[in-house]
Design a protein that fits this description.
The chain is of the alpha+beta class and 320 residues long. It has two domains: 123 residues, PAS domain (Beta-Lactamase, 2-Layer Sandwich), CATH 3.30.450; 159 residues, Alpha-Beta Plaits, CATH 3.30.70.270. It has a five-stranded antiparallel β-sheet with strand order 2-1-5-4-3. A five-stranded mixed β-sheet has the order 7-8-6-11-12, with helices on both faces. Helix 7 crosses helix 8. The chain is elongated, with a radius of gyration of 33 Å. The relative contact order is 0.09.
Length: 320
């Protein structure tokens, strides 16, 4: 392979290429007609294998694609070539990262020399990319943890209330209907006192999983504290919402305590209301909370609804 003509500039280029090669980087040099004039061992291993010609840029790309070498190409090789060639010599200098078929990542420095030749130098950044991926995954996991109740794996109070705010906005825009329910497990303190807090935690997990299995895909349940849950039911009216909650209650199995083979039977009360045009988080939660209070006052293990537009109490007041 004829690499460099014999002139001072070429001698300087030869020294530069030699230094880059010794550093372990992947180095290639294409002439003005895009014929490969030099490729070090690293470049050949990554992009060519045992290929020995013809040594044009496009032929090398096609060979690499056929033999699972070089750059990962997700679409048709000819479409990739047609897209790449017009940009190959513009601008004169550019840097970019690319992933290879073998899973490695390279940072490419691409330079058009004064004589029209193309010098390409690639440095392996696989470790950096893998660390970047790990950091991104850790960040995503932290976000999920910040939004999730660790005991039940449901959205926590903050996250479910954010969903409520979003659902209210959507309902105002579409008028498609939104119902909200506050659900409370009946006599939960007695469960803890009788069976222990571990059993109480197991009941909460059992309740959450049972609801996930019985609610619609678009419904969203979150834990807002203790044994209390907030349920968002978009796209329906009150009668349908009550029907969904009552069907969940009717088909709910008791929780089995495997250590002593006892079943913990529990019920839940629910208060449900429908979003009104002017509702915000406070007003709709107040009505649902009052409906839940009515369900508990009437003997528990039932669902009650609240129609009227009530003014929520001042901050600091609680359900009596």
């Amino acid at each position: 392979m004829n690499v460099f003509p014999s002139d001072p500039d070429s001698e300087a280029l030869r020294g530069l290429v030699g230094a880059l090669t010794e550093s372990g980087q992947a180095v290639s040099l294409y002439d003005a007609e895009d014929r490969l004039r030099y490729a070090n061992t690293t470049y050949r291993d990554l992009f060519m294998g045992d290929y020995d010609g013809p040594l044009t840029f496009t032929d090398i790309l096609r060979h690499a694609n056929r033999n699972r070498l070089g750059v990962r190409i997700d679409d048709d090789i000819e479409a990739f070539i047609a897209r790449t060639l017009p940009r190959r010599r513009s601008p004169r200098r550019k840097s970019f990262e690319t992933d290879l078929v073998n899973g490695r990542w390279f940072w490419i420095e691409h330079t058009i020399l004064p004589n029209g030749w193309v010098l390409s130098v690639g440095a392996d950044i696989s470790t950096l990319k893998h660390n970047e991926k790990s950091l991104r995954q850790a960040h995503e996991a932290a976000l999920v943890a910040a939004r999730t109740d660790l005991l039940t794996d449901l959205p926590n109070r903050r996250h479910i209330l954010e969903h409520l705010d979003e659902a209210l906005v959507v309902d105002k825009q579409s008028a498609s209907g939104l119902c909200v329910a506050i659900i409370d497990i009946d006599h939960f303190k007695a469960v803890n006192d009788t069976y222990g807090h571990d059993a109480g935690d197991a009941v909460l997990r059992h309740f959450a999983q049972g609801c996930r299995e019985r609610l619609r895909d678009r419904d969203l349940l979150g834990r807002i504290g203790g044994e209390e849950f907030l349920l968002l039911l978009p796209g329906i009216r009150l009668s349908d919402a009550v029907g969904i909650i009552d069907r969940v209650r009717a088909g709910f199995p008791p929780h089995n305590l495997p250590d002593d083979a006892r079943d913990v039977r529990f019920t839940f009360s629910a208060g449900v209301t429908e979003a009104l045009p002017h509702d915000d988080r406070s007003s709709i939660l107040y009505r649902a909370d009052r409906a839940l209070y009515a369900a508990k006052a009437e003997g528990r293990n039932c669902t009650r609804i609240r129609f009227e537009n009530e003014i929520p109490p001042l901050r600091g007041e609680t359900r009596s």
